[in-house]
């Protein structure tokens, strides 16, 4: 059942509803709030830049969720990887992998069927993100080009990364452990085209005086942490310098 809305009627189908229900519970997303974010009168906002695959991307009105349309092959890959993904996320609560909240199909009054996946929006945070990066570990064509780095809304690439991050004792070990575990899952599912999303917040002088505590009780010079808040989106790194 979808919330009451004034738009045209449509048919909604859930794929693997029990598995995704468990995932949403694991990620702290309440069922009613999830449906209100996606199916209320406030329309989804379509993003300007479509993916290379030709997929369309949308953002929920409350900025909590990304919606991506899927082709049959993509849907089949996600569906076949779901058991391993669920097991991995259950055993790695600080995973940096994208959080998947649902796999659905909508049938319009005209009979058109659209398959899509709902993901967490990593960049929906309580702090302002001054820079955002999509890092693939490659140099070939990995820059937004002249003038692009001055655009506060641009998603920067590998060659645009002009800073380093200092981590307190214990943070690097935990980070590398989680990255290796997450990459192990992707490898087991034969997934190789992925990247690391990174959001950077420049702390004010006041924020610098109230430093966050590292895993061993130390005060880190920089901060890197996994986003475990469902409204904060999927896995990823937040770097503060």
From TrEMBL:
<dbReference type="InterPro" id="IPR002498">
    <property type="entry name" value="PInositol-4-P-4/5-kinase_core"/>
</dbReference>
<dbReference type="GO" id="GO:0016308">
    <property type="term" value="F:1-phosphatidylinositol-4-phosphate 5-kinase activity"/>
</dbReference>
<keyword id="KW-0418">Kinase</keyword>
<dbReference type="Pfam" id="PF01504">
    <property type="entry name" value="PIP5K"/>
</dbReference>
<dbReference type="GO" id="GO:0046854">
    <property type="term" value="P:phosphatidylinositol phosphate biosynthetic process"/>
</dbReference>
<dbReference type="GO" id="GO:0005886">
    <property type="term" value="C:plasma membrane"/>
</dbReference>
<keyword id="KW-0067">ATP-binding</keyword>
<protein>
    <recommendedName>
        <fullName>1-phosphatidylinositol-4-phosphate 5-kinase</fullName>
        <ecNumber>2.7.1.68</ecNumber>
    </recommendedName>
</protein>
<dbReference type="InterPro" id="IPR027484">
    <property type="entry name" value="PInositol-4-P-5-kinase_N"/>
</dbReference>
<dbReference type="InterPro" id="IPR023610">
    <property type="entry name" value="PInositol-4/5-P-5/4-kinase"/>
</dbReference>
<feature type="region of interest" description="Disordered">
    <location>
        <begin position="211"/>
        <end position="241"/>
    </location>
</feature>
<dbReference type="InterPro" id="IPR027483">
    <property type="entry name" value="PInositol-4-P-4/5-kinase_C_sf"/>
</dbReference>
<feature type="compositionally biased region" description="Gly residues">
    <location>
        <begin position="231"/>
        <end position="241"/>
    </location>
</feature>
<keyword id="KW-0808">Transferase</keyword>
<dbReference type="GO" id="GO:0005524">
    <property type="term" value="F:ATP binding"/>
</dbReference>
<keyword id="KW-0547">Nucleotide-binding</keyword>
<feature type="domain" description="PIPK">
    <location>
        <begin position="1"/>
        <end position="241"/>
    </location>
</feature>
């Amino acid at each position: 059942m979808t919330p009451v809305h004034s738009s045209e009627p449509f048919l909604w189908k859930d794929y693997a509803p029990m598995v995704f229900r468990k995932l949403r519970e694991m990620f702290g997303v309440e069922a009613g709030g999830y449906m209100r974010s996606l199916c209320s009168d406030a329309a989804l906002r379509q993003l300007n830049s479509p993916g290379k695959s030709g997929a369309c991307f949308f953002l929920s009105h409350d900025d909590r969720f990304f919606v991506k349309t899927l082709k049959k092959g993509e849907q089949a890959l996600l569906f076949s990887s779901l058991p391993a993904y669920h097991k991995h996320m259950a055993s790695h609560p600080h995973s940096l992998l994208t959080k998947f909240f649902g796999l659905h199909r909508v049938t319009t009054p005209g009979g058109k069927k659209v398959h899509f996946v709902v993901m967490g929006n990593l960049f929906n945070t309580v702090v302002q993100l001054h820079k955002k990066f999509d890092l693939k570990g490659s140099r070939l064509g990995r820059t937004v080009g002249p003038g692009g780095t001055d655009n506060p809304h641009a998603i920067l690439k590998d060659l645009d990364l002009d800073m380093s991050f200092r981590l307190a004792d214990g943070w690097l070990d935990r980070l590398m452990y989680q990255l290796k575990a997450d990459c192990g899952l992707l490898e087991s599912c034969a997934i190789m085209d992925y990247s690391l999303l990174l959001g950077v917040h420049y702390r004010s002088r006041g924020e610098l005086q109230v430093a966050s505590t590292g895993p061993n009780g130390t005060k880190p010079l920089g901060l890197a942490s996994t986003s475990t808040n469902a409204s904060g989106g999927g896995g990823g790194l937040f770097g503060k310098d």
